[in-house]
Amino acid sequence: MTDADGVWLYAVTSAADLGEDLGELTGVAGEPVRTVVSGDLAAVVGSVPLAVFGDEPLRRNLEDLTWLEATARAHDAVVSAVAGRGAAVPLRLAVVFLDDDRVRGMLDERRAAFESALALIRGRTEWGVKAYGDRAALTAAVAEAELAGSERAGSGTAYLLRRRAQLSARETVERDAAERADRIHERLVRQAAAGRRQPLTDPVLDGRRDWMVLNGTYLVDDDRADEFAAVVEDLGKQFPGIRLELTGPWPPYSFAGAEREAR
């Protein structure tokens, strides 16, 4: 490391879990990844040139989507490799310190928060569940539910009842979708150690035209991952007009509270 280098942070973990040899793991600048240790905590870091990763050049580079995607992939590859060895608090993209001493100071200052975060995520992994609504199918399902149990004295009456239910369902489809998303999220939270609702993704950003109604992340015990997936599948069958998409496993970015404080 030179005066022209900064220290890019990838994750914080237990020094005992990590071990000493990181093999040939490389980071966002192609640099060999190393550790900065303070007590029983280890920060996984890399020395990166400030000409590229300093404040001003980094701000410009983050606006380059090609550069951003490649850097994010390299960052996540290191985080995933570290998480594969044991509990690890992942640092979000672009956390850079000027030198190792400042990293050690951060570990000392936030020791309690990091230890608490590591205790929460140990033996657990993050899973994502997105719910997408089909307006036509959801409208039909709500209308059928409203008609269930109603008596049909004649074909004319039945037709009027059905049309009224369909019109009502069209007017309330947004609310109905939100209610279903709430119920799905509540059920998944009960199945997980922790759960959070994230902002809904703008279709323009992910290139999809689907109507997203839930973007949830859930911290799941590793030995209950199959059970969690089965619950997601079952919920997908319980709510006509709602399609569930399970993704993961991921490093627990959504539950790294200590990381947010450290930034």
Shape: globular
Q: N- to C-terminal separation?
A: 22 Å
Structural category is alpha+beta
* Assembly form of the protein: single chain
Sheet with most strands: 5 strands, antiparallel
Number of helices: 12
Estimate what percentage of residues fall within beta strands.
Answer: 15-25%
Domain unit count: 2
Number of strands: 9
Element pattern in H and E: EHEEHHHEEHHEHHHEHEHEH
Task: Compute the average pLDDT.
Answer: 83
Radius of gyration, CA atoms, in whole angstroms: 24 Å
Which spans have pLDDT < 50 for at least 5 consecutive residues?
A: 158-171, 258-263
Range of helix content: 40-55%
Structure report:
There is one protein chain. Helix content is 49%, strand content 24%. The chain is an alpha+beta fold. It has two domains: 118 residues, no CATH class; 88 residues, Alpha-Beta Plaits (2-Layer Sandwich). The protein starts with a strand and ends with a helix. The C terminus is likely disordered. Keywords: Gas vesicle. It is found in: Gas vesicle. InterPro entries: GvpL/GvpF.
